[in-house]
Automatic annotation (TrEMBL):
GO terms for cellular component: extracellular space. Gene3D superfamilies: 3.30.2460.20. One of its GO terms (molecular function) is co-receptor binding. Belongs to the Wnt family. Keywords: Developmental protein, Disulfide bond, Extracellular matrix, Glycoprotein, Lipoprotein, Secreted, Signal, Wnt signaling pathway. It is found in: Secreted, Extracellular space, Extracellular matrix. SMART domains: WNT1. Ligand for members of the frizzled family of seven transmembrane receptors. Residues 1-21 form the signal peptide. This is Protein Wnt.
Length: 357
């Protein structure tokens, strides 16, 4: 039996994986996940001029803008990525006091909270995912289907199956973000670390899928390709990482003569192993409560909550208002001969709870 996805993913943050070269991420410097103007009203990417214009609309560094101009299809992918990351963040935090609202985003990104860590991770994950998908969907000129060796993937192409190109997307991403490996700034190191957690979360969901071909399931030919899991699963992984994020401080590494992220000792790992594991989200400051409006969030007044599950924590002890409203739904449906279904409309009272001011 397959465990439910959440359980299957639960161990992710506990995996000790080799620390990889992380790089600072910011789609737009310090401004990740901002929805870009004109979403959905894009001119066809095939038109060169339109593509260049889109690159100019994005808030990118000069170097990133150059890369954008050189790669038709990239601007659109960047916007897809920002949108994907934002929606996922809002979904994962729908029942939390901080609900990933855009209001206060800039304040958060300047600090070192758990929420900041999540934002960095979910942005880089979304970009990695969107790029790999754009390659396999043929929306980019410089990349195509996944061609990892040993996967018969070239054969898979003949069957019209195109694997998501994670190899290209991670390579492009590290170039796009630039390396700040040697940075002395602790914040930059934490951001880079969390960025990499996002990329790793996407990698962990890159799985081989196979399909049989042949007369009635004889499987005379089997083709396999690599496919990314739905981004919802990646979001779930990252939310678990957020829940178990590790507070770090800095320590001077005598051997290297520079500041390093320092994680508290944990069970089962050698005492001298002080670096946070590469699967852990790290943060430096305890978060505010997010109960009241502040420069980090609009507060929780007016938030809809569930009386059984979330009202007590979401409303921060201020209590909640109860309103009743009528909702219409289809009911007493009957199949009529022939061939349609006829339903009546029923009305039901529903209670809506919202946090008091
Ligand atoms: C987040 O909460 C604020 C109120 O605190 C609300 O105005 C906003 O619509 C919520 N956003 C989402 C995406 O649920």
């Amino acid at each position: 039996m397959r465990p439910p996805p959440a359980l299957a993913l639960a161990g992710f943050c506990l995996l000790a994986l080799p620390a990889a070269a992380a790089s600072y991420f910011g789609l737009t410097g310090r401004e990740v996940l901002t929805p870009f103007p004109g979403l959905g009203t894009v001119a066809a990417p095939a038109q060169d001029g339109a593509h260049l214009k889109q690159c100019d609309l994005l808030k990118l560094s000069r170097r990133q803008k150059q890369l954008c101009r050189r790669e038709p299809g990239l601007a659109e992918t960047l916007r897809d990525a920002a949108h994907l990351g934002l929606l996922e963040c809002q979904f994962q935090f729908r029942d939390e006091r901080w609900n990933c609202s855009l209001e206060g985003r800039m304040g958060l990104l300047k600090r070192g909270f758990k929420e900041t860590a999540f934002l960095y991770a979910v942005s880089s994950a979304a970009l990695t995912h969107a790029l790999a998908r754009a390659c396999s969907a043929g929306r980019m000129e410089r990349c195509t289907c996944d061609d990892s060796p040993g996967l018969e993937s070239r054969q898979a192409w003949q069957w019209g199956v195109c694997g998501d190109n994670l190899k290209y997307s991670t390579k492009f991403l590290s170039n796009f973000l630039g390396s700040k490996k040697g940075s002395k700034d602790l914040r930059a190191r934490a951001d880079a670390h969390n960025t990499h957690v996002g990329i790793k979360a996407v990698k962990s969901g890159h799985k081989t899928t196979c399909k049989c071909h042949g007369v009635s399931g004889s499987c005379a030919v089997r083709t396999c390709w690599k496919q990314l899991s739905p981004f919802r699963e990646t979001g779930q992984v990252l939310k678990l990482c957020y829940d178990s994020a590790i507070k770090v401080s800095s320590a001077t590494n005598e051997a290297l003569g520079r500041l390093e992220l320092w994680a508290p000792a944990r069970q089962g790992s050698p005492a001298q192993d002080l670096a946070p594991w590469s699967g852990d989200l790290v943060y430096m400051e305890d978060s505010p409560s997010f109960c009241r409006p502040s420069k980090f969030s609009p507060g929780t007044a007016g938030r809809v909550c569930s009386r059984e599950a979330s009202c007590s924590s979401l409303c921060c002890g201020r209590g909640y208002d109860t309103q009743s409203r009528l909702v219409a739904f289809s009911c007493r449906c009957q199949v009529q001969w022939c061939c349609y279904v006829e339903c009546q409309e029923c009305v039901e009272e529903e209670l809506v709870f919202t946090c008091k001011h």
